[in-house]
Amino acid sequence: MFLAYGPQVLVTDIVNLIFAMMQMDKSCLRQEDKIVEVIDKFNEKLKEDDLDDLWIPTHFIMDAESDDFMAWAIIEYVHRLQGTDLELLVQLAPDPELDALAGKLAGKMQCSLIRDKGSRNAEAIKEFITAASLTARKSRQIATGSSFTSHRAKTPLTPYPVKG
Question: What is the pTM of this model?
């Protein structure tokens, strides 16, 4: 269902995060109707600011692929509802094309960054950056009434100085 109608990213990590935060048994992950039920309950809890029985991670480690950003957004939202801060650790390859992303992430107050030469997902991250850039550009053009021609383009990345 997620692959047919959902976002064009892997959602396994997001579903696993929701199940962990809802403190659900992972055996339910094999039943599509149960997965939908848990996600719906989680959604309702967030709408109602009902965080009392959720497990809320204090730290999040990610390798900056698209599903990680979605999971981070969920956890960050919950922390903002609580008025608390999430500690974030991001692993990135030392690829120069990721310097802009590294700079933006390093600018976050509670974010630590590791440039790992063993990281092998630079291409997946660059694809995500390109897709996100095209989506943002399309949204801006729709909002302003200008036309948009879909095409695959490299996102221009400006290097930012990275600490550490």
Answer: 0.71
